[in-house]
Amino acid sequence: MFYNKNFCFLIKTKRKLLILLLYYALIVACIFFYYHKEYGAIDVKELEVIKNDPVLGLNFFYTLQQPGMTLIKFLLTCLLIPNIISADFLVLKHNHFTDFIKTRISTKSYFQAAKFINFISTFLITLLMHLVTLLVIHLFFFKITFHQVNIPVESILNMFSSNILMNLMIYILLSSLGFAVFSHFVYALQAFIKNTYLYRTMGLMSALILYTGSFLLVKLAFDLHLGIVVRIILYMTCIPNILVPGMEESVYIGQYRLVHYLGTLVLYLIVSNILFTLRERWEYASGR
User: Fold this and answer.
1) Do 85 and 118 touch, CB atoms closer than 8 A?
2) 115-136 confidence digits (pLDDT tens)
3) Counting CB atoms within 10 angstroms of each CB, which of 20, 44, 68, 149 has the fewest?
4) Nearest Cα residue to 77 out of 278, 240, 265, 246
């Protein structure tokens, strides 16, 4: 009951619904833009022949997941992360509304509820984003089919399973969970970020730093002739490992998709929980 009464109203506001509608509209616009960029110059008859490829729709979907190929779509989602709901918690804190809630249910219960609704909201919104992307591709560009054709072993169509439908389902669930964990991490940064406007950009800034920074660290480790184990550990900081699992690779490390995913997921969960623990203890000790 607490979750519904105290926090669910944040998602139902007209402003929040408008932000989400604008986000999905921009995602759709990105899909159209990328399609015309890649296929707009191809002759109509030639394109019709190309569309006979039964897995072209899925290939196009996975291509749209690659940050290096569709950076705008990736950054839009990262920018949305703190603005889904966790930024509202910071606003409520500045308005001292959270003091009222904590008095009723305790600081510990407040943080448990806030973390839960932030996590599950991000998961569902990201899941819907993937489904919208598939629907737009199927309706306007290429038919999404799941014919088991001869697919190369290293294809993105069978990253996690030899069955391309199962592979797609696994990817979507892992990616949605990854974005939820990233949102959990960004929310934990409120222990240090007090300015609301700065915090609203933290998803974007964190993604850029953790994206480029990890590749630079791995390259530095390679140049210093450090072992593969050290490079893999450093690569665990690469946030795309959980946001777009299997889509980004480093030339200095082999293909260990699930290892990278699980390692990065656990790392950010641990860091987030440490930050939350410190914040909760500080607020409890200060009586806030």
Assistant:
1) yes
2) 888 899 899 999 999 999 999 9
3) 44
4) 240
pTM, 2 dp = 0.87
For 267, the token pair is: 């790392």
Please give the Cα distance from 26 to 48 (Å, whole number).
Answer: 27
Cβ neighbour number for residue 162 with a 10 Å cutoff = 11
Q: Quote the distance between the C-alpha of residue 59 and its chain's center.
A: 20
Q: Where are the domains of the chain?
A: 1-286
Query: For the chain, what is the HEC assignment?
Result: CHHHHHCCHHHHCHHHHHHHHHHHHHHHHHHHHHHHHHHCCCCHHHHHHHCCCCCHHHHHHHHHHCCCCCHHHHHHHHHHHHHHCHHHHHHHHHCCHHHHHHHHHCHHHHHHHHHHHHHHHHHHHHHHHHHHHHHHHHHHCCCCCCCCCCCCCCCHHHCCCCCHHHHHHHHHHHHHHHHHHHHHHHHHHHHCCCCHHHHCCHHHHHHHHHHHHHHHHHHHHHHCCCCHHHHHHHHCCCCHHHHCCCCCCCCCCCCCHHHHHHHHHHHHHHHHHHHHHHHHHHHHHHCC
Given a contact cutoff of 8 angstroms between Cβ atoms, the answer to whether 202 and 186 are in contact is yes
| 204-253 residue pLDDT tens | 888 888 888 877 887 887 777 777 778 788 888 888 889 998 887 765 56
User: Which is nearest to 253 in space by CA: 265, 263, 267?
Assistant: 263
Collect all residues with Cβ–Cβ distance below 8 Å to 16 and sequence separation of at least 6.
10, 85
- Placement of tokens 């009723």 in the chain: 104
85 touches 199 (CB < 8 A): no
Q: How is residue 145 written in tokens?
A: 């089919």
Question: What tokens does 15 get?
Answer: 């402003």
